[in-house]
Write a structure and sequence with these properties.
Elements lengths: L17 H10 L5 E4 L2 E3 L1 H8 L2 E5 L3 E3 L13 H9 L1 H10 L2 E3 H7 L4 E3 L3 H11 L21 H15 L4 H11 L5 H16 L2 H15 L22 E4 L3 H12 L4 E4 L3 H22 L8 E4 L10 E4 L5 H14 L5 E4 L6 H6 L7 E6 L8 E6 L5 H13 L3 E6 L6 H18 L3 H11 L5 H8 L1 H10 L15 E2 L2 E2 L3 H7 L26 H13 L9 H21 L6 H11 L9 H8 L1 H14 L10 H8 L8 H11 L1
Parallel strand pairs: 1-3, 2-4, 3-6, 7-8, 7-10, 8-9, 10-11, 11-12, 13-14
Antiparallel strand pairs: 4-5, 12-13, 15-16
Bound molecules: (S)-3-Hydroxyhexanoyl-CoA (3H9).
Length: 661
């Protein structure tokens, strides 16, 4: 049972109230045994906690995921679970919303028995065996709370962890407060639980998180401009796959495939790189085997230097060095080496998938599968289709993503696809703010205070400043033939900040070199500290170029960076790169650390108010007429003119607009 019907949250709840129902079961004189066959989540687990005994099938999963919906368990879970398994374990489950396996639930004491047989049948037999046993000790709400001596410290640490998990998110903090009330008598604790739930239930954050829940499922119902979509396209079975290029991304992708039980040919051209990859991949798999406690055939993966093994695979994912010529050459080779029906996928994050398709004899079987680092952790997968990609190829890549535990989002091929395309104006504004007087830490703290997992400069240092540098060189924006560091340098007619290029030229590439926008404890360090060298560098740059620094507030940082990103999102919709704005929100929440409790960039724009977003962009565009990314998109203007319809109606206006053309 997956808990309360989330769809009911936006309308009056129907059916019997759960709390009195569970209390009545618990108080009853007949032993009630919960049989947990599949999922016991949220209200489902809370109902089971009100029963006197719990039997779970070995494949069952249990959890209280309410926090992921901006809520708290509100049918006694915050009061019964700490009594049953203690405060630390209960806090961990409730603050994270994570699911536990039946085996772990047995170890924790949540269930009384785990069975490989039909849980219902076992529960009936169990009920018969306890029919004469007294129930008084089985009523959790009557148990005294198990208050450890250091409970205050445990709660303080839980509060700090709750805050760290989602800066600005209300629900994790409320979870701690509700569990804290389990030190009181049950009825008083329940009053606190209900009070906190009432505060959260109608909150904008709860609505935003529930929007995220449904959005991540809606993107599975993908469609393409040519009318192909999820329910008229058939995915092919993937009996064996290959990963070519075993750098960081290739290794993560190979791990994903093996964990999904798909045999993998892991291929490199360099012996040393192959051996290094073998060691890393096998270590990652060993770790997953221990963590997941599942049987895994490590023999599923075969490391090789030889292309001949590629003949037997159904799908190839290349993750070689991000160089177009190299990838085109590889795709041309794959055309002749692989079986004619083999899908050829690229993990490129920036390069033109259409050009790769052209390099093959099967452009219809070429799609992008853009994983996000670390590939075996980040749930997002951008499936990039070209105008020639067949619906079957897209359906297969989307399906494979799901098998790998990813949320696959189908996007049309364009520079940067969706995530990186929207990121460009965001990063660009951050650079301009440095020129105008801000420091990297001022910009980052404003963005992180908003809730982003990492500010733009910390994120750049993590991924490596040379990544963006290579892209700008390829775009002809910088490099040996391009004049460097001139006043508000214009490139291709628009304002361009050379700051990142100048930093890279100094060999400051971020964490990997021990310095970038920040200073680290050494190459590979992670502790970002403000760097006096960067401050002096910025002051000198402004002096040389006659730039009068000014104090820049958090509001301007957020508006310039986030609204520029949102504006590009509207352009992505105008260009029909995706067919639904929820796709942009899913991409940013899952792939770029956008705070889920605000719904995602496009949902957030609706919450802020489209007229305000438009007005602020118009203001900044007047102040900075040489920055086209600040020019409000036509769709944003159109939506405001139409009275700012809700997000699920935006695409209708695009259809309406394009049908008028
Ligand atoms: C009084 C308060 C009591 C309590 O404390 C509050 C709660 O219980 S709060 C609730 C706490 N419970 C949770 O937070 C559990 C939320 N659910 C999940 O975590 C996963 O769905 C689950 C793990 C159950 C299955 O994963 P999977 O196998 O990958 O499958 P899937 O995920 O693709 O879902 C298939 C379809 O079912 C839909 N749907 C699913 N659950 C719900 C729901 N509760 N409601 C409505 N719909 C739901 C889902 O939208 C999708 O619809 P569609 O139209 O086909 O796209």
């Amino acid at each position: 049972m997956s808990g309360a019907d989330i769809r009911e949250f936006s309308r009056p709840m129907t059916g019997p109230a759960l709390v009195p129902l569970i209390d009545a079961i618990e108080a009853g004189e007949k032993p009630v045994v919960a049989a947990i066959e599949g999922m016991a989540l949220g209200g489902g687990l809370e109902l089971a906690l009100g029963c006197h005994y719990r039997i779970a099938h070995s494949k069952a999963q249990l959890g209280l995921p309410e926090v992921t919906l901006g809520l708290i368990p509100a049918a006694g879970g915050t009061q019964r679970l700490p009594r049953l398994i203690g405060f630390p374990a209960a806090l961990d489950m409730i603050i994270t919303g994570r699911r536990v396996s039946a085996g772990d639930a047995l170890k924790l004491g949540i269930v009384d028995q785990v069975t490989e047989r039909n849980a219902g049948e076992v529960a009936v037999a169990f009920a018969r065996s306890v029919v004469d046993c007294p129930l008084v000790s089985r009523r959790l709400s009557t148990w005294p709370p198990l208050c450890p001596a250091d409970l205050d410290n445990i709660l303080q640490m839980a509060l700090a962890r709750a805050w760290q998990r989602g800066r600005g998110a209300l629900a994790p903090v409320a979870c701690v407060q509700a569990v804290q009330a389990a030190r009181l008598p049950y009825s008083q604790g329940m009053q606190q639980e209900q009070k906190l739930m009432s505060m959260l239930f109608a909150s904008p954050q709860a609505r935003a998180l529930q929007y995220c829940f449904f959005s991540q499922r809606a993107v599975g119902k993908w469609s393409m401009p040519n009318g192909a979509c999820w329910d008229n396209s058939t995915a092919r079975p993937i009996r064996k796959a290959a990963v070519i290029g075993l750098g960081t991304m290739g290794r993560g992708i190979a791990v994903c495939l093996v964990l999904a039980g798909i045999p993998v040919i892991a291929m490199e051209t360099d012996e040393k790189q192959l051996e290094a990859a073998r060691r890393v991949v096998m270590a990652l798999l060993e770790k997953e085997v221990q963590k997941l406690a599942v049987g895994l055939h490590l023999g599923l993966i075969h490391f090789t230097l030889e292309q001949r093994y590629l003949r037997e695979v159904d799908l190839v994912i290349e993750a070689v060095f991000e160089d177009l010529a190299l990838k085109k050459q590889l795709f041309a080779e794959l055309s002749s080496v692989c079986h004619p029906d083999t899908l050829l996928c690229t993990n490129t994050s920036q390069l033109d998938v259409d050009q790769l398709a052209t390099a093959t004899s099967r452009p219809d079987l070429v799609v992008g599968m853009h994983f996000f680092a670390p590939a075996n952790k980040i749930k997002l997968l951008e499936v990039v289709f070209t105008s020639r990609s067949s619906p079957e190829a897209v359906a297969t890549a989307m399906q494979l993503g799901k098998w790998l535990g990813k949320v696959s989002v189908a996007v049309a091929n364009c520079p940067g696809f969706v995530g990186n395309r929207m990121l460009r104006p965001y990063v660009e504004q951050a650079g301009f703010l440095l020129e105008e007087g801000a420091t990297p830490e001022q910009v980052d703290s404003a963005l992180e205070h908003f809730g982003l997992a990492m500010g733009v400069f910390r994120m750049s240092d993590l991924s490596g400043l040379d990544v963006g540098w290579r892209v700008r060189k390829a775009a002809g924006l910088t490099g040996p033939g391009v004049p460097q560091g001139q006043l508000l340098q214009t490139q291709q007619g628009y304002r361009y900040s050379p700051l990142a290029d100048l930093i890279c030229q100094k060999g400051r590439l971020g964490q990997k070199t021990g310095c970038g926008w920040y200073l680290y404890e050494g190459p590979g360090g992670h502790m970002a500290r403000p760097d006096p060298w960067v401050h002096a560098f910025l002051e000198e740059y402004r002096r040389v170029h006659g730039l009068q620094p000014r104090s820049i507030g958090q509001q301007e940082v957020l508006e310039r960076c986030l609204f520029a990103l949102i504006n590009e999102g509207f352009r992505v919709l105008e260009d029909r790169i995706v067919m639904d704005p929820v796709a942009l929100d899913v991409i940013y929440v899952l792939g770029y650390g956008w705070p889920a409790h605000t719904g995602g960039p496009m949902y957030y724009a609706g919450e802020v108010g489209l007229p305000r977003v438009l007005g602020r962009l118009e203001y900044y565009q007047r102040v900075h007429p040489d920055i086209p990314h600040l020019r409000p998109s036509a769709l944003l203007r159109q939506l405001v003119a139409k009275g700012s319809p809700p997000i699920h109606k935006w695409m209708w206006h695009i259809e309406e607009g394009s049908s008028r053309l």
